[in-house]
């Protein structure tokens, strides 16, 4: 039997759509974006799979009850904040994402931001465009060689940032990650330390944690106050992981030298956000991950993921592996036979 995959809006890269359109187990169900909640629910009521694009709808226990044939929910990217993973697990619905596929562009963005801030590139660019002729010593920057990077969260992206910092710039890399042992951090090239030591000793600090109730607002007034007045803060994770108001005050008071912010709360940032008016803030609009190469890789990986699910296999990048026993029961009820790896 063919399984129905519902999605809203064409994929950023068409490779995945093309692959699945030829898959013998997949029925592609395309809908335009911008449907009402009622129309979205109606489309999902007959779905076997739901591939998220934007936050079309919250995937929670209530929605799952209205989607009796749903086998899995997948994200086209790494994030899946619109999904209640616990509710999916209880219902036996798999949650998958493309975590790890787009690591390289984010790590490269962090390095680019570090260098741009160190060399005062944003300030020099704006001044020149405004017709300002620099005075002696104005916009003088700093080398990044042999300085200290602080990495909060030593996942794939944090590890890649560590590799580049150590390999290209001979930097000391401090790492805080309560979910990894000191040995695991050391094996990935980092120097394990407390969050307090990282905040106070680093010349640059980059945040790489998922958004959860534990990480929401984890960097705020207390943490920014620990930083060197010459240090820089970089956030490419999720906007709500930091307290933007506290960062604004810290920058205004000179508690740190500058920041690079690629993710916001809310997104896009409101026009009156004071961080957008600061010369020492490198502001971008969630562009660290999207590259043509990353889009192609994530499109392909998502297609392979859904093909595996619809063949009855356990897919890669499964966010809730604990759902598998309930999933076997749900899959058997919907499809009429158990999945291959039951």
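Q: What amino acid sequence fits the structure above?
A:
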């Amino acid at each position: 039997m063919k399984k129905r995959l519902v999605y809203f809006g064409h994929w950023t890269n068409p490779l995945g759509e093309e692959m699945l359109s030829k898959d013998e187990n997949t029925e592609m169900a395309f809908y335009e974006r911008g449907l009402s909640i009622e129309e979205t629910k109606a489309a999902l009521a007959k779905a076997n799979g739901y591939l998220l694009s934007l936050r079309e709808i919250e995937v929670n226990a209530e929605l799952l009850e209205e989607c009796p044939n749903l086998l899995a929910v997948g994200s086209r990217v790494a994030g899946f904040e619109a999904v209640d993973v616990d509710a999916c697990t209880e219902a036996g619905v798999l949650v998958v994402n493309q975590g790890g596929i787009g690591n390289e562009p984010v790590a490269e963005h962090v390095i680019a931001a570090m260098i741009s801030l160190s060399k005062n590139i944003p300030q020099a660019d704006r001044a020149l465009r405004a017709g300002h002729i620099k005075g002696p010593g104005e916009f003088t920057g700093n080398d990044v060689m042999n300085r200290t990077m602080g990495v909060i969260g030593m996942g794939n992206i944090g590890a890649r940032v560590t590799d580049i910092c150590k390999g290209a710039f001979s930097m000391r890399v401090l790492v805080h990650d309560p979910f990894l042992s000191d040995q695991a951090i050391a094996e990935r090239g980092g120097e394990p330390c407390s969050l307090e030591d990282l905040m106070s000793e680093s010349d640059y600090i980059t945040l790489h944690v998922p958004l959860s109730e534990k990480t929401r607002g984890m960097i705020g007034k207390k943490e920014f106050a620990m930083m060197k007045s010459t240090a820089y803060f970089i956030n490419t994770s999720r906007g709500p992981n930091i307290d933007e108001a506290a960062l604004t005050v810290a920058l205004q008071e000179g508690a740190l030298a500058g920041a690079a912010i690629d993710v916001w709360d809310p997104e896009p940032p409101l026009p009156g956000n004071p961080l957008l008016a600061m010369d020492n803030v490198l502001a971008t609009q969630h562009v660290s991950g999207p590259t043509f190469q990353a889009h192609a890789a994530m499109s392909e990986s998502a297609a392979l993921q859904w093909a595996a699910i619809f063949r009855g296999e356990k897919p890669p990048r499964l966010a809730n592996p604990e759902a598998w026993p309930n999933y076997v029961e749900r899959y058997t009820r919907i499809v009429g036979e158990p999945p291959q790896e039951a």
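Q: And what stands out in the fold?
A: Residues 60 and 208 are 26 Å apart (CA to CA).
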